[in-house]
Amino acid sequence: MFLLLVDKICKEILGQKFVSVIEFLLKNADKGGFITLTQDEICKLADVSKPTLSKIFKTLETKKILKKIKNGVYKLSIPK
């Protein structure tokens, strides 16, 4: 129940697509936090437009939650 409430609040604050992309990244990251997919692949798999994904990635990079290593390789750094 608690996690459902948190999910609902996050979707209200950040928006459905933002939360969906974060969930997608978390599910597709390896144990080290690396995601090896291009932005085009993520757009297709996560059903999100390129401009929306770019905006989300920029926000996550600004907050130092996501770091682009090179094209097709990203690193999630979840704050503790």
UniProtKB/TrEMBL annotation:
It comes from the Bacteria. SUPFAM superfamilies: Winged helix' DNA-binding domain (SSF46785). InterPro entries: Plasmid_replication_RepL, WH-like_DNA-bd_sf, WH_DNA-bd_sf. Pfam families: RepL. Residues 12-76 form the Plasmid replication protein RepL domain. One of its GO terms (biological process) is plasmid maintenance. This is Replication/maintenance protein RepL. It comes from Campylobacter corcagiensis. The lineage of its organism: Bacteria, Pseudomonadati, Campylobacterota, Epsilonproteobacteria, Campylobacterales.
